[in-house]
Every structure is written in C-alpha cells, then in structure tokens.
Write a structure and sequence with these properties.
By secondary structure, this protein is α+β, with helices and mostly antiparallel strands. Helix content is 39%, strand content 20%. Helix 1 runs antiparallel to helix 2.
C-alpha cells in the first residue's frame, strides 16, 4: 500500500499570461522550494515534477498528508497563485522501476483536478488514518472522472488563519506581491525551472495515470 498526492497551482497559465514569464518563474520556484523542503523533512518522495505542480508518494500516510497541508498553507500565505491537491491511498504496480500504475494514482490526480483553489481533497480511507492528528472537514460525496459512482471525500482545512478554499475556480488569479523573504529564496531557484515555464500547457494536458521520478 502506498499513498499518493498531486498538487498544482490554480490559474498558473493565466497568471503567466498576465504578469509575464519572470513573475511566473518566481512563483513556480517558490512552490518547488517550499514543497521540496517539506518533503525532505518528512521523508516524502517527490515522484515527479509536473511543471506547475508535482506528484508525491510515500509508504506512511501521515507524512504525506502533513507535507501537503504545510505546502498548501505556506503557498496560500506567500504566493499570489493558490495551490490545490488530491490525496489517495491504495495498492499499485511499480512499472519499470519508477513508474506507478493503479487506481490510487488516478484517484489522487482526479481529486486534485476536482479541488478548488486552496483546497485539499482526500479519500475517506486516507482521512480515517489521520483523523486523530489533522483537522478534517466532512463533505458530500463528489463525482470524479472515470469513476461511475460518487466518491466519499474529506477536506483538509487550513491550519493557519487567512486563506480559505474557494468553491469555484477563480480566473485570472489576482496580482499580489510575493512576500520579500519568499521571493528572495525563490529567485535563487529561477534558473532551475525557467525552461519548464516557457511552454506551460493548459490543465487539460495532464492525465495523472502514472508518474516517473
């Protein structure tokens, strides 16, 4: 059994078009710096970078959930572009050594696509495993692509005051200046990610059925 999470920036393409590639690189670098630090601190694997997002995986549920919550909350407080995420757990097949194939991978990706800005959606099964350590918000079952019946989900609300999930996607994302400490850190990472931003695709290009490191 493994746990998977997909995270991505909501409205990143619109933000890039409105504010230019330089501002977009700073936002993307901030996400990667924040997520990498949180993942490394908890032993969570960043399985694959997905331009304006990432796929995470782990054996233990709590570290992955904590990593996603911390990253979402920091991005909400420091970046002009909000994050959303989906988390699921289940059995998968490891294909050719570093590629995961299975329903849990698909579900995590589809929950991320279903989530609103600043929102983390997780399956009920994952929620039950972390119920004593993280806050959970009950929700009505939701319909996701590729699944015939509605899926039981829970929302992982913010631990920090301020940002709240928005039930409908907001496009374009309003312009907000990144806080100085975060911007300074992010700018040092710009060279690492600039090529991936120059041809940022629309959200429809990612299927989320498997991931490679």
């Amino acid at each position: 059994m493994r746990i998977f999470a997909f995270v991505d920036l909501c409205g990143f393409t619109a933000y890039t078009e409105a504010h230019g590639e330089g501002a977009a690189v700073t936002v993307l670098a901030h996400l990667r710096t924040t997520l990498r630090a949180s993942a490394e601190a908890r032993g969570v694997r960043v399985t694959k970078w997905l331009r304006d997002g990432a796929m995470l995986s782990g054996v233990d549920t709590a570290p992955v959930v904590e990593c996603v919550i911390e990253t979402r909350d920091k991005v909400a407080g420091e970046s002009p572009v909000p994050l959303r995420a989906g988390i699921a757990r289940g059995r998968v097949i490891m294909f050719e050594g570093d590629d995961y194939v299975g329903a849990a991978v698909n579900m995590a990706a589809r929950l991320a696509a279903r989530a609103a800005p600043n929102q983390i959606l997780t399956t009920v099964g994952v929620a039950e495993l972390v119920a004593g350590s993280v806050p959970l918000q009950p929700m009505q079952p939701v319909h996701v692509g590729g699944v015939a019946s509605a899926v039981g989900v829970r929302e992982l609300p913010h631990r920090t005051a301020g940002a709240r999930s928005v039930r409908a996607p907001v496009e374009p994302v309003p312009s907000v200046t990144v806080r100085e400490p975060a911007m300074a850190l992010a700018q040092r990472q710009r060279a690492l990610v600039e090529a991936s931003v120059l041809r940022c695709p629309s959200r429809g290009g990612r299927k989320g059925k498997s991931g490679k490191a």
